[in-house]
């Protein structure tokens, strides 16, 4: 059982175990926003519902440089496993500006690509091939990318994750 932790400004911060969330609530560092009905936790002093979403009582400052690292899996996920050139299912990634010509491993230079397009394009740019990208590649943003574990989230989290997007 996992709990979504929101900053005092309702910004998603992390996903923690319900035990850690309960400790934060018991120490009055957080309050319960959403809870799981049924199966409460009994303590010597009180009965607590299992928290699904908690809100910190004090604002925690987060550095703005919270960048998502570039990975093959991340590029495929960002592009929905669809080729950036032909929209067929993608299984690999491609450098828009090839590495041999100074292309970097960055979110803005990588796209998901099918094997056929990747082999056809080879060491050329899309302009040289007469191809167009379906969308401009950019770094992903939003709570689904900065808070790990939200892809297998609880349905109760959806309103709070949607606020951050």
TrEMBL record:
**Record domain HNH nuclease: where:** 70-119
**One Gene Ontology MF term:** endonuclease activity
* Keyword Flavoprotein set for record: no
Q: Which UniProt keywords apply?
A: Endonuclease, Hydrolase, Nuclease
User: Cytoplasm as a keyword?
Assistant: no
Record-linked InterPro entries: HNH, HNH_nuc, NA-targeting_endonuclease
Top-level taxon of the source organism = Bacteria
Q: Which PANTHER family match?
A: OS07G0170200 PROTEIN, SLL1193 PROTEIN
Q: What is this protein called?
A: HNH endonuclease
């Amino acid at each position: 059982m996992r709990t979504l932790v929101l900053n005092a400004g309702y910004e998603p911060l992390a996903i923690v175990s319900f035990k850690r969330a309960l400790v934060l609530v018991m120490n009055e560092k957080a309050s319960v926003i959403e809870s799981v009905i049924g199966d409460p936790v009994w303590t010597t002093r009180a009965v607590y519902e299992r928290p699904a979403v908690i809100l910190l009582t004090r604002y925690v400052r987060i550095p703005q440089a919270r960048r998502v690292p570039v990975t093959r899996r991340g590029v495929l996920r960002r592009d929905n496993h669809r080729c950036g050139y032909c929209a067929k299912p993608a299984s690999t990634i491609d450098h828009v500006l090839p590495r041999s010509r100074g292309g970097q491993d960055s979110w803005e230079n990588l796209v998901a690509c099918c094997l056929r397009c990747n082999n056809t394009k080879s060491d050329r740019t899309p302009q040289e091939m007469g191809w167009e990208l379906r969308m401009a590649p950019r770094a992903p943003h939003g709570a689904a990318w900065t808070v790990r574990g939200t892809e297998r989230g609880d349905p109760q989290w959806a309103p709070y994750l949607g606020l951050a997007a």
